[in-house]
Design a protein that fits this description.
The complex is a heterodimer. Chain A contains 7 helices and no strands. By secondary structure, chain A is mainly alpha-helical. In chain A, helix 1 (2-23) packs antiparallel against helix 3. The radius of gyration of chain A is 43 Å and the shape is elongated. The relative contact order of chain A is 0.04. Chain B is built from 6 helices and 8 strands, in the order H-H-E-H-H-E-H-E-E-E-E-H-E-E. In chain B, the strands form 2 sheets. Chain B has a 6-stranded antiparallel β-sheet with strand order 1-2-6-5-4-3. Chain B is α+β, with helices and mostly antiparallel strands. Chain B has helices at residues 2-28, 40-43, 54-64, 69-76, 93-108, 167-173; strands spanning 48-52, 78-87, 112-118, 122-131, 134-144, 152-160, 176-179, 184-187. In chain B, 32% of the residues are buried.
Chain lengths: 165, 188
């Protein structure tokens, strides 16, 4: 209980200090003008306040652990670890493993198959569209080539020469 | 106990992770696979993005079995279908450059040109990867920058045995009416 009371005391003091610093108009103005100087003043105030609070007694279980380290004894970590937590963690991990397991039955639903069919249909639509474009372009190119060849045929050339004469 | 749960987690990860990674990597190792790079940074998210793997294509083929066994047989030979369609209203240049870059890459890998259309603002390329006299992969790249409002870049990669002559037949069999503006597919 005394540990709890002590911790409440210094926590309250720290909270008060924080509030004072936050509400301090002088510091706010200084922060606007020179942020580095304002930080220095804040740091000095915190140091003064911590000096006032003084050294605090560590909680018993923390103290025991720290003393055990200093004495070279093995630290007892089990006190804070409940076996049911470990069991729950293991169960959760196993559950995730089962859900993600590649061996479980992953058959898609009828809606998913229908959606895939629509996607496939769209793919073939775009394939046809591209094929149509190339076909039209090829036909145009051939038509132009034939026209060009026809325009330079010997008959037309002969006609042109006749006109010139 | 804490260690035990950690061991279990590591074990599960070791069992699942390779399978998950392998399924993604296997596709890229396929003979007919082509990487189109990433145009999302330039054109935003694709208007149409389709990614069908072997398993799902198998289910679609299975579903088509009763209606048309021939089409089901054709679909069953496909391993993967990937489609990316981007709106390219602002600038077609990046998409046109991507077509050129992918063309260079796949020609080095022995892809054969089926047809190639080259205009200033329009490019259509169809390539096939042949394996023992059969098409084992198909790539279609079509960039149409002629109409600024409706400009789009289409990249299609089909892995598996496909007969281009059957494309029209498959499309008819799927009974579709695609509304490009909304990206919706309506069954007839």
């Amino acid at each position: 209980m005394s540990d709890q009371k002590n911790s409440n005391d210094w926590e309250q003091k720290l909270d008060q200090l924080n509030k004072q610093i936050e509400d301090d108009v002088f510091l706010k103005n200084m922060n606007n003008e020179d942020a580095e100087l304002a930080d220095l003043v804040k740091a000095n105030r915190v140091i003064d306040q911590l000096d006032e609070i003084g050294l605090q007694k560590a909680p018993d279980h923390l103290g025991n652990k720290l003393y055990a380290i200093a004495d070279g004894k093995p630290v007892d970590n089990k006190s804070g670890w409940l076996p049911w937590r470990a069991m729950a963690s293991a169960a959760a991990v196993l559950l995730i493993a089962i859900v993600l397991s590649p061996w479980q039955n992953n058959d898609p639903s009828a809606e998913e198959i229908e959606q895939a069919r629509n996607q496939l249909a769209m793919t073939f639509f775009y394939l046809n569209k591209a094929a149509d474009k190339t076909r039209i372009h090829t036909q145009q190119t051939i038509a132009e080539s034939v026209q060009m060849a026809m325009s330079k045929s010997p008959f037309i050339l002969a006609d042109e020469e006749a006109v010139e004469l | 106990m804490k260690k035990l749960s950690r061991y279990i987690a590591v074990l599960c990860f070791a069992l699942i992770a390779p399978w998950q990674v392998a399924s993604a990597q296997n596709l890229s190792k396929e003979n007919g696979y082509v990487d189109f790079g990433n145009l999302t940074g330039v054109y935003g998210e694709p208007k149409v993005q389709i990614n069908l793997g072997t398993a799902m294509l198998g289910f679609v083929a299975g579903a088509a079995e009763q209606e048309d066994p021939d089409i089901a047989g054709l679909l069953a030979k496909l391993k993967s279908v990937r489609v990316l369609v981007y709106d390219i209203e602002q600038d077609a240049e990046v998409a046109l450059n991507t077509v050129d870059q992918v063309t260079k890459d796949i020609q080095k890998e022995g892809w054969e040109t089926i047809v190639s259309v080259n205009e200033d603002d329009e490019k259509v390329r169809i390539y096939a990867k042949m394996e023992k006299g059969k098409i084992d992969g198909l790539v279609v790249m079509a960039v149409d920058g002629t109409n600024r409002r409706k400009s789009e870049a289409v990249f299609i990669n089909i892995i598996g045995e496909i007969d281009p002559a059957q494309v029209g037949r498959v499309t008819r069999s799927l009974d579709i009416d695609v509304d490009i503006s909304s990206g919706e597919v309506h069954r007839d």
